Amino acid sequence: MRIEQDLKLGFKDVLIRPKRSTLKSRAEVKLERHYTFLHSKRSWTGIPIIAANMDTVGTFAMAEALAARGLLCAVHKHYALQSWQNWLQRQKATLYQHIMVSTGTAETDMEKLRALIAAAPALQFICIDVANGYAEAFVAFVSRVREAYPQMTIIAGNVVTGEMVEELLLAGADVVKVGIGPGSVCTTRVKTGVGYPQLSAVIECADAAHGLGGRIISDGGCTCAGDVAKAFGGGADFVMLGGMLAGHDECGGELVNRGGQHYKLFYGMSSSTAMDIHAGGVAEYRSSEGKTVEVPYRGPVEGTLRDILGGVRSACTYIGAAELRELSKRTTFIRVMEQENRSFN
């Protein structure tokens, strides 16, 4: 047993210090990023915000809405192959730049992935997603997918430490997903005692990834547009959102009426709800590590996207970053005891 004494920070622990700016308007800020990925050598241009691969968020409808604005969607892994084929037949070629195919690491997952890529070879992104990215078997699976699909851009996670980011990049990942326990419907930290404050994880993992030419996704922990800006300020190349995009028309999940108010069901993918739907229940050797909640119905996702993108643009103007790629270079975090005046909350 050992104890690390240095402080680890989450988004709630800091604010971004303002700096002199020559920008006259938020409209001047360019949010698009351009990346060439480490192993696939593919180039990508767009706004680096991703809908999480949860079956209540990472839907076909959400993918269409986000692609229209240049954002990405990690489509959840539970769609049937025929559903994928039917949907892709109706889409334009540009959509392929904005969708990620999610997969687990079971042999059935690999078989489904092979079938999907064979049916739709224009797909560009594979998101290999497990709760615990520290298992040797996971690293081996990443290497196996890289060997099978050298031309694909591979996302792998989740981890929270620099050495594991480096191992996954060396195993064939182009982008590593960072976050253990910060999600709004994740209970991993409560059930297991394992986790890492998200901002510190992003800072440390970004440093490790960029040293090897890789990229990271900050996955989880954002509750508002300011947190998205902080994630980018901490060095994240992409930010993945779940709860912030929940409750919309484009989301999956049941719409319920409670006392005249409408809500949508939102749950973690390790929750008993998700496992009942997709795995026949919670296996006796494990516990549920996710919540099931009812999110107030929020209508079309477009309004929420405007709010998020507007907040990030505004953050850039406060520190003089004309482009999103300048944000981390111009960010100074200050530790705080409070975030906002909550008198009327």
Summarize the structure in words.
The chain has helices at residues 60-67, 81-89, 107-119, 136-148, 162-171, 188-192, 198-212, 225-233, 272-278, 302-319, 327-330, and strands spanning 14-16, 33-36, 43-46, 49-51, 72-75, 99-103, 125-129, 153-159, 175-178, 215-219, 238-241, 255-258, 261-267, 292-296, 333-335. It is 32% helix and 19% strand. Helix 5 (162-171) crosses helix 7 and helix 8 packs across helix 10 (302-319). It is built from 11 helices and 15 strands. Strands 4-5-6-7-8-9-10-11 form an 8-stranded parallel β-barrel, surrounded by 6 helices. Strands 12-13-14 form a 3-stranded antiparallel sheet. Strands 1-15 form a two-stranded antiparallel ribbon. It is globular. The chain has 345 residues and is α/β, with parallel strands linked by helices. The longest helix is centred in the last third of the chain and has 18 residues, at 302-319. Strand 4, helix 1 and strand 5 form a beta-alpha-beta unit.
Q: Residue share in helices?
A: 25-40%
Specify the structural class. alpha/beta
How many beta-strand segments?
A: 15
Q: Ends: how far apart?
A: 42 Å
Brief characterization of the structure:
This protein is an alpha/beta fold and 345 residues long. It has eleven helices and 15 strands.
Topology:
Blueprint: E1 14-16, E2 33-36, E3 43-46, E4 49-51, H1 60-67, E5 72-75, H2 81-89, E6 99-103, H3 107-119, E7 125-129, H4 136-148, E8 153-159, H5 162-171, E9 175-178, H6 188-192, H7 198-212, E10 215-219, H8 225-233, E11 238-241, E12 255-258, E13 261-267, H9 272-278, E14 292-296, H10 302-319, H11 327-330, E15 333-335
Parallel strand pairs: 4-5, 4-11, 5-6, 6-7, 7-8, 8-9, 9-10, 10-11
Antiparallel strand pairs: 1-15, 2-3, 12-13, 13-14
Helix pairs in contact: 5-7, 8-10
